[in-house]
Amino acid sequence: MKLKERFRKNTGLSPFVWIVFYILPFYFIFPTSSIPQIVFGILMIILFFVFYVLSFVAKGWLVYFWTSLQIVISTIMGIFFSYIYFSLFLAFFIGNLKNRVAFWILYGILIATTVGSINVGFILNSRVFVTQLPFVILSTLAVILLPIGTYNRNKEEKLKEQLENANKRIADLVKMEERQRISRDLHDTLGQKLSLIGMKSDLASRLISKNPAQAQIEIKDVQQTARIALKEVRELVTKMRGTRLDDEIKRIYQILKTAQIKFRLKGDTHLKNTPLIAENVVSMCLKEAVNNVVKHSQATECTITINPKEKELEVTVEDNGIGLGDRDERKVGNGIQGMRERLEFVNGTLEIESENSGTTIKIKIPKVQRKIEE
Fold first, then answer.
1. pLDDT at 189
2. How far apart are CA 116 and CA 108, in angstroms?
3. Where are any strands of DSSP class E within the chain?
4. Distance CA 78, CA 315 (A)
5. Is residue 242 classed as helix, strand or coil in its secondary structure?
6. Separation CA 156–CA 189 (nearest Å)
7. Are strands 349-355 and 312-319 parallel, antiparallel or unpaired?
8. At a CB cut-off of 8 Å and minimum separation 6, what does 241 contact?
9. What is the CB neighbour count within 10 angstroms for residue 250?
10. Residues in CB range of 56: below 8 A, 6 or more apart
11. Is 46 left (phi over 0), alpha (psi -120 to 50) or beta?
């Protein structure tokens, strides 16, 4: 089972699709060959597929050794039996080689041996090659194009994976730095004042019987220090309250630009009469919605519309992707559930409309008049 899955991953096709290529060599061997030639041809076919399987399970230099033997057999089959289609197996396999030098060397050898065996085949057995000329031409083009296309596709997937890992690492580092900053701010804000409160409280407890007047002064100092500490904590929490919508939109623009998705913004990001906590919830929901667009939608365009109505704030995220099929819905289910839970905290709602032409997410939050601070 593991071999079958590995075969599917490397070739992009089910192994059963290749059954026709397993049977086809015998068609070239039996009609016009003598008994010794038939035995020799069958032996070559068996050895080819044995080496092909070994190249999948092998590691290190053995991969290139078994692949080289396959190229030799493919060349022999092309010259003696006018069968060049083993080169298609090799084209798929060589395209999946990760070693850049090995890929280019084996790719060059494959092209040279394929073209060479075709030329020799035309000279020795031109009638067979002429009758299958269209297939010969298509196979030659496949041998030239398939390895390059497969190699570039795998390279692109690897770069995407590295980019995703780098983004996760950056996010973890940002969180770590933020935690350290918060701990430093809390230590600087509360550490000294709590120590002062503790010392003055101890002093007041010792003076309360000996010098009540001085003890009362110390207690007043404790009260004043506690008020100052509370004020500083409130200021610190205010700074850490959350992300403004305007700042989140700027980050969304960078994310979509990196993903090569065209971004359109409709409406004003500077909200009026919207509590900061509600604005923070909208920002977090937008972040999750845009992450889903980048990861799952395969979209080329994303539009965010900010529509402050009389009684509610409506924010819409639209894309022109593939929509939410059953599989995609399972993938993004946790993110959508998280958005619903955040919105419930501010009495908001989430609506999702999905079609083959894209997905629309509507975020609605009731409008509450901001409390004017004195």
1. 61
2. 12
3. 262-266, 301-308, 312-319, 349-355, 358-366
4. 64
5. coil
6. 49
7. unpaired
8. 276, 277, 280
9. 11
10. 3, 6, 7, 10, 93
11. alpha
What backbone torsions phi and psi does residue 234 show, to the nearest 5 degrees? -60, -40
From the list 283, 296, 287, the residue with the least C-alpha distance to 333 is 296
Of 229, 226, 203, nearest to 216 by C-alpha is 203
User: Long-range pairs for 132-135 at CB < 8 Å and ≥24 separation?
Assistant: 132/82, 135/85
Distances in Å between the Cα of 228 and the Cα atoms of 191, 194, 196, 223 are: 13, 11, 12, 9
- The b/e string for 170-199 (b: 16+ C-beta within 10 A; e otherwise) is eeeeeeeeeeeeeeeeeeebbeebeebbee
Distance CA 119, CA 238 (A): 79
Give residue 303's pLDDT. 94
Beta strand pairing call for 358-366 and 312-319: antiparallel
Angle between helices 100-124 and 86-95 (to 10 degrees): 170
User: Which residue positions in the chain have pLDDT lower than 50?
Assistant: 1-4, 7-8, 10-14, 327-331, 369-374
**Residues 110-160: tens digit of each pLDDT:** 888 888 787 776 777 656 666 777 777 787 787 888 888 888 888 888 888
Q: Which two tokens stand for residue 144?
A: 């030239």
User: How far is residue 230's CA from residue 133's CA, in Å, rounded to a whole number?
Assistant: 87
Q: How many Cβ atoms sit within 10 Å of the Cβ of residue 13?
A: 11
Distance CA 331, CA 84 (A): 43
Cβ(15)–Cβ(5) below 8 Å: no
pTM (2 d.p.): 0.40
Residues in the chain: 374
Q: How many CA atoms lie within 13 A of 242 on its CB side?
A: 15
Strand partners, 317: 304, 361
Residues 6+ apart with CB under 8 A from 270: 246
